[in-house]
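ok so heres the complex, six chains, lmk if somethin looks off
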Amino acid sequence: MGLARVNGESSTGRRAPAQQRSREKVRAILTAARELIVASGVEALSTRAVAERAGVPVASLYQYFAHKQDVVLALVEQDTQEMDRRLAEAVAALERPTVRAVVRATVETVVGLYRERPAFVVIWCQGRMSPAVLEYTRAHNGRIAEALHAFGVDSGALPPDTPLSSVRLAVETADRVLEFAFEKDLAGDDQVLREGIEMIAGYLERPTP
Amino acid sequence: MGLARVNGESSTGRRAPAQQRSREKVRAILTAARELIVASGVEALSTRAVAERAGVPVASLYQYFAHKQDVVLALVEQDTQEMDRRLAEAVAALERPTVRAVVRATVETVVGLYRERPAFVVIWCQGRMSPAVLEYTRAHNGRIAEALHAFGVDSGALPPDTPLSSVRLAVETADRVLEFAFEKDLAGDDQVLREGIEMIAGYLERPTP
Amino acid sequence: MGLARVNGESSTGRRAPAQQRSREKVRAILTAARELIVASGVEALSTRAVAERAGVPVASLYQYFAHKQDVVLALVEQDTQEMDRRLAEAVAALERPTVRAVVRATVETVVGLYRERPAFVVIWCQGRMSPAVLEYTRAHNGRIAEALHAFGVDSGALPPDTPLSSVRLAVETADRVLEFAFEKDLAGDDQVLREGIEMIAGYLERPTP
Amino acid sequence: MGLARVNGESSTGRRAPAQQRSREKVRAILTAARELIVASGVEALSTRAVAERAGVPVASLYQYFAHKQDVVLALVEQDTQEMDRRLAEAVAALERPTVRAVVRATVETVVGLYRERPAFVVIWCQGRMSPAVLEYTRAHNGRIAEALHAFGVDSGALPPDTPLSSVRLAVETADRVLEFAFEKDLAGDDQVLREGIEMIAGYLERPTP
DNA sequence: AATGAATGAGGATTCATTCAT
DNA sequence: TATGAATGAATCCTCATTCAT
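and the predicted structre for the whole thing:
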């Protein structure tokens, strides 16, 4: 048993050459955008710069993305997919899924991602400025909370009457704990992370109010 | 005994007419900026728009603020001053300052501010984009944490060996709880707030790790 | 035998329509810039004014020129190319290339250009303000000196041991003689020109120091 | 016998305190302007910067100078006065005033000034952009030529029928020789200066055409 | 005489996006 | 599908100068 698939995209089989060429350009664009965002922040991202770095004409960018913002959104989607994949894995791998174990596994998974991919941090934190990204992020946090809630109740880690909203709050809090831990220290402040996990686990372990 | 003064500006007495006119313009500019930020976000703020809405020439804006960003910074300063004032009051008014009581008072004070001034929410949350504002906000959270830590230890609400970093984490968490509570509901989701207070108080009440 | 080609751009054959339209706009921009410079000097040149006079949006100007200064530079390049072309011709046409004859031919060629194109004078003189233009002009004077030196030595007009630096100085002096002759009189003061030629030729004819 | 006074300002005796204070401010302004010009060029000079550096309000600048340009003009006047003073001295000190000696003394005097005061070079060269400064410089060169012509004819160094225009041309040429010598080398290229003197002296020594 | 405040006009440059080809 | 070219609108910010006090 594991976390429900939160986010998915079916991409089966072969593609026509034209599509393949498109894919490559899209990938180039996204990679360029990611690099620029890491270098200068989300706010400073410009279509020109992305296109130039990607080696495609600016106009081509608009073949694949209706608005500049959609590029950022695509990046966020990539990231959330990767995050979901790892979260599902990590939670499924738990031997005894206590609340504390799940919280720790969740936080540590994200920490691993953050440490591997610095772009993740920037996009995740700064990207939240744009309404679309913000909305996406919120929705994603909501979906994560739902999945964790379901898993927790199913696996007995969480009392059956735990309201979804509590898990939702826990997820949001974890988000901030992570932000805080990484804001002080690009490698993530371990002490902060440990205490954060305590706080959230402690909260979820309490008898439901 | 109360919270140490975190932030202050003494502005006593009369002013010369010229200065008074200046003050008015500055106020007009800040008000305009505040409104525009609430309407369209911090990122979309432009000097042109501010000046136009304030009814002053753009050039005048630059008499009082060296850079656009300084306008936002001034807004943040206004807000933090008001927040500090109220926090000091609220904490001082507590009869029996238990951890739980202090946390509740703190959160509720900010909630009151948020409810009174919607601009506060937007600026506080989105403003954090700009490096200067971000730094200011971080520093302010740090100062709040220090003040609360000192007060907690002095008043016996907090065990004497509570590390400052725990209070710092608590403040950050409270920040996010508030953000979360107000993101769903412009009036602030009460259930979220109540649980958030529980979580933070629970965390601070634990025996120190 | 003649002056070495100092500056050249081959632009052969047809162009696609789009490119042709571009060319026209570029020409319009350069023409507008030229006129404005003649009217108000190089320092007063503004992108706005150029664009307006050229009948193109300001933004279009930046399609063809990365910086305002590049417009002036392009003008200078046009002029130097024309100058080089005529100088090569004039010198090649000399029957008996004595020093005096070469100096006279050189000065008279430039005089001809100045008289035909008043913009030349202004850009050539005032343009030297901007670092880029100044550098270009210096380099160009250097190249002219080199070409004349080579020609003079090859043709026997100049003693073989004449140092390049003497010709360099002669070119600079000629530059100023021209400036002076045209500053008093937009048509060029003939008396000054005649004497200037004498001075420079006399200098170059002396036995090398 | 010496060069006629070319440029003068009578400044006798005491001044009222108010005037004295004014003088100080004017001096502060001019000094500030000079420094800024040396640092960033004439074109970049701004009233704000001058006033700030001088420690006077911008508006005060307009009490003493009608236009920004007049500040630069005042600088040029200071410089020309100093130059005239030294030139008169240097020429008067000549034992046997041959043409060659006068030319050399003149050039060397200016070279001395240039070497002592870097601001001189910048203002003298770049300042010529502005019409007013240009006109002033031209007029001054004319006055120098007149004085030298008179001196040369009176002292027998120059044939009595030497036209003024020849000396005028010589002065202009010397100006450029100096410019050229200092453009290559901030200390002034000695070889260029020596040859320049030769060229000009050779020109003036010729039998009048 | 002195000056803090005010400002209209303009500075260069960039933007996301569209469109004709 | 792909793209070079085009652009209206906007960006922040600076300027020399004036004026009320």
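quick notes: Confidence is low (pLDDT under 50) at residues 8-13 of chain B. thats all i got rn
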